[in-house]
Amino acid sequence: MDLSKVAWRKSSYSGANGGECVEVASVPGAVAIRDSKDPSGPKLTMNHKDFQRLAATLKNR
Q1: In Å, how far from its chain's centre is CA 37?
Q2: What letter does residue 21 receive in the DSSP assignment?
Q3: What does the pLDDT look like over 13-58, one tens digit per residue?
Q4: Quick count: other Cβ atoms within 10 Å of Cβ 7?
Q5: I need a surface site. Which of 18, 27, 30, 38 has the fewest CB within 10 A?
């Protein structure tokens, strides 16, 4: 999947330099995730249901 032109969003919890968090992007049928410190590095994609489950799990920690 080509992720070169997607609109990445940073978390509101990201540091002032934007380097201590993940970024997410909505892509057809999935959510893409990348490390904000390494935007050209590896990306992970998962379906919306799995992403919601992951976000809920992290929120409750």
Answers
A1: 12
A2: S
A3: 766 665 678 899 999 999 999 998 898 999 999 999 999 999 999 8
A4: 9
A5: 38
